[in-house]
Amino acid sequence: xxxxxxxxxxxxxxxxxxxxxxxxxxxxxxxxxxxxxxxxxxxxxxxxxxxxxxxxxxxxxxxxxxxxxxxxxxxxxxxxxxxxxxxxxxxxxxxxxxxxxxxxxxxxxxxxxxxxxxxxxxxxxxxxxxxxxxxxxxxxxxxxxxxxxxxxxxxxxxxxxxxxxxxxxxxxxxxxxxxxxxxxxxxxxxxxxxxxxxxxxxxxxxxxxxxxxxxxxxxxxxxxxxxxxxxxxxxxxxxxxxxxxxxxxxxxxxxxxxxxxxxxxxxxxxxxxxxxxxxxxxxxxxxxxxxxxxxxxxxxxxxxxxxxxxxxxxxxxxxxxxxxxxxxxxxxxxxxxxxxxxxxxxxxxxxxxxxxxxxxxxxxxxxxxxxxxxxxxxxxxxxxxxxxxxxxxxxxxxxx
Amino acid sequence: xxxxxxxxxxxxxxxxxxxxxxxxxxxxxxxxxxxxxxxxxxxxxxxxxxxxxxxxxxxxxxxxxxxxxxxxxxxxxxxxxxxxxxxxxxxxxxxxxxxxxxxxxxxxxxxxxxxxxxxxxxxxxxxxxxxxxxxxxxxxxxxxxxxxxxxxxxxxxxxxxxxxxxxxxxxxxxxxxxxxxxxxxxxxxxxxxxxxxxxxxxxxxxxxxxxxxxxxxxxxxxxxxxxxxxxxxxxxxxxxxxxxxxxxxxxxxxxxxxxxxxxxxxxxxxxxxxxxxxxxxxxxxxxxxxxxxxxxxxxxxxxxxxxxxxxxxx
Lengths: 400, 314
Fold this sequence. Notes:
The structure holds two protein chains of two kinds. Chain A is built from 15 helices and 13 strands. Chain A is an alpha/beta fold. In chain A, strands 3-2-1-4-5-6-7 form a seven-stranded parallel beta sheet, sandwiched between helices. In chain A, strands 10-9-8-11-12-13 form a six-stranded parallel beta sheet, sandwiched between helices. In chain A, strand 6, helix 5 and strand 7 (about 165) form a beta-alpha-beta unit. The longest helix of chain A has 17 residues, at about 70-85. The two termini of chain A are about 40 Å apart. Chain B is α+β, with helices and mostly antiparallel strands. In chain B, strands 2-1-6-7-8 form a five-stranded mixed beta sheet, with helices on both faces. A five-stranded mixed beta sheet of chain B has the order 10-17-16-12-14, with no helix packed on it. The longest helix of chain B is centred in the middle third of the chain and has 27 residues, at about 145-170. In chain B, about 30% of the residues are buried. Chains A and B meet through helix 6, helix 7 and helix 11 of A and helix 2, strand 3, strand 4, strand 5 and helix 4 of B.
């Protein structure tokens, strides 16, 4: 059955090369995978150098005055994005906003253009000012998309009258992230990939690695990432006496990241919280078993004892036990590597894109139009009332 | 060895003062360099490393490309109900309150007086930074040369102790006595002159503090899953100090009878304790054994233990 081509306006705070987390990768992969059946107008902050954006996407750079990266900056960004979208007189079928930073633009355009709004929540917010904007998005969207059951549960627990939540997991590029063609040289290399922030639990990994060294004295730990905890973690490593066994190799992307996964005996994800866990998928796609905290989306990706291990959050001795078992048991590791690759293959961007397209079509054919249920309007108004003066003034300017 | 002064306004006389004092009290190899605030990422990482993670404070810094003094610093407070808010931003002249600050290698050591209060609003309940001797920072009045001199003297001793601690920890994984000083310096992120300076006068390469000289051995290292096995825990005190009322902690997926173990360890002695151990996990796993002296009881969770691998049989 042939589909008529949809036109979707996407609002994102990130797009390659300006990527700070999973959001930017998600937007790039999904817009690319859906470029056939969907014509995208992609609104991003004006930062220049979006040279990797394919010509099939109509990129619209939103200029906004520089300032502190806070809720007010993003409200001003939304205001400018709305103006730009209206000037462009877009004939679109749907609006799609990613995370709290851009959702106010979607809410206003939904009202003005009478088109449905899809709101993608990648990382539920805990900072109050950001969560306020996110709550408005949840209340005003015709469809909320999340990447894991864990995030869906977290949103449902807020007890808001959200109209509809659907889960579309992130994918992984199965052509770039592939297992190594050569056999391992036998080196015992443990790998961490991610931002060096408290949420990622890298200090727990360092404690675990110290115990691992008592059993596997030749093991090495590679930490690929950057963040405000870097020097703290280096000091912890020194304190534990293992600084010289730990390589901090900064943030890695592209082929160098793939090479790290291929050389690794296992990848460890010791996070205290992880809404999805795209690193787990990348590692598994490279045939690398994962030892991960039993939290969030990781519990949905990793089958404990089959394609990796799940361990209790924040406990370094069980973490050490699982890491060492993978370093020492070649047969188990080989079996898990095969299972890991097979599991990752279930998460292609193509599959996520098809699921998203199906949801687009269902939302567009929905009967709600732009009329929000009364309860959603009331709760939204009460949320705006809780904002501080500056934010409320901008919000009022946007929404009235 | 590099020390860095992070300055809001250039102050060459302060740099020279620190250079003289560091060379006099810390090591003759210290070079003091100045760093303006325009690229604050390293500053923020250094300050973050002085904040214990349990405080739940995350610092970020960004720069604007068009304004003068275009840095802003932001502190997020992830634990509700302490420090009074979600985040606090510092822009323009507020940023000046973070400077000057002094770091030695990868360790922030001095910040201006009042920074803790500036950062979190109130420090009545919980100051954001650890104390200098606990790996944190000292708030320093940079107008007071006597205070600066005293602070550098205190710092020199703290850095020496931290180096010796790290050297002990390192020696558990490398036979440091057989290594050349250059490798030790490289592995411990310092320079060879500082290693020579600290080790000068030491009759042994490693300080004779108690924790670095307590050895543990457990026999047997295997037992049936979910069944009690009688075992011998050997404790060896190789230090010059008599240790009394020592608490022995055993952590891992095992039950232990009798735990906690309290014992006394005379200097250069070995004692054996009979315990029973019941593994709860199948296969091979680590048990961590640590000794805590009575005066360090409140730091028990932070004292490095020794991992001993145990195998449970079915």
